[in-house]
Specification:
The protein is α+β, with helices and mostly antiparallel strands. It folds into three domains: 95 residues; 32 residues; 106 residues. A four-stranded antiparallel sheet has the order 1-10-9-8, with no helix packed on it. A four-stranded antiparallel sheet has the order 2-3-6-7, with no helix packed on it. A two-stranded antiparallel sheet has the order 4-5. Strand 4 and strand 5 form a beta hairpin. The radius of gyration is 53 Å and the shape is elongated. It starts with a helix and ends with a strand.
Length: 241
């Protein structure tokens, strides 16, 4: 009976020690797992910190590159603005303006039409403000319209040397119907034909102006609205050039 009691106590102590050992092992396991997890966390934090440092470094480099690009762009813009100002100044200084530009355009057109440079130089050299002019001559015509061909639509100057024919747009009454004469507020067309020469056409709102050179005489025509159905045409005759 004493032996059985001894075995029971021995088994009890064995169970106690076994439980204690298991508890110690469990605690050690938890400690090991905790230490491992902590270490893994530390490593992840280190990796994340290193990654963030790399990103910060890359962003800093990109920021520096962008700042350099912006600086270069600003310098290029300032250079372009300076060149533009210089070119504008050169354009103003070198390209004809105003009356000089108009004369240059006329000279270019005459050269293109076949007039020699020597002839142009002679005409320009001979030109002067004081001219040999005859007293102006004024006549009136009644422009034809799309609805009425006026018998008085043309006039001639200097014994038929130059003929001027007028055309206009029919005047409308209050109901929109066409009248028998032209509307002076609408476009008027003058056909100016020198005897044996080429017809010149001038179109626009009155007053109209046109110059025609025949031989050594320049005829300057001015057309203005006259009484009701008429257009008054004045011709000035001056020596040319």
């Amino acid at each position: 009976m004493t032996l059985g009691l001894y075995d029971s106590e021995r088994r009890y102590r064995r169970r106690v020690w076994t439980g204690f050992v298991q508890f110690v092992l469990f605690v050690l396991f938890v400690l090991v797992v905790s230490v491992f997890a902590y270490q893994m966390g530390v490593e992840q934090v280190k990796d994340r910190d290193a990654s963030l440092r790399d990103e910060v470094g890359q962003l800093s480099r990109k920021k520096g590159e962008l700042e350099l690009f912006v600086t270069q762009l600003q310098e290029a813009t300032h250079t372009a603005e300076a060149r533009s100002t210089l070119l504008e100044q050169r354009l103003q200084n070198e390209v004809p303006q105003g009356d000089l530009a108009r004369l240059a355009q006329l000279a270019s057109e005459r050269l293109t039409a076949g007039v020699s440079a020597d002839r142009l130089a002679f005409v320009i050299g001979a030109a002067q403000n004081k001219r040999n002019c005859q007293p102006p001559e004024t006549k009136r015509l009644q422009p034809s319209t799309q609805f009425y061909k006026s018998p008085n639509r043309s006039v001639s100057f200097v014994s038929g040397t130059i003929t001027v024919v007028g055309e206009g747009v029919a005047l409308r009454d209050s109901s929109g119907g066409p009248e028998g004469w032209y509307d002076p507020t609408q476009t008027v067309t003058l056909r100016i034909t020198p005897q044996g020469g080429k017809e010149q056409l001038v179109t626009g709102l009155l007053p109209l102006h046109q110059s025609v050179v025949v031989d050594n005489t320049e005829y300057r025509f001015t057309a203005v609205a006259g009484l009701r159905t008429f257009v008054e045409v004045t011709a000035d005759r001056c020596g040319y050039p």
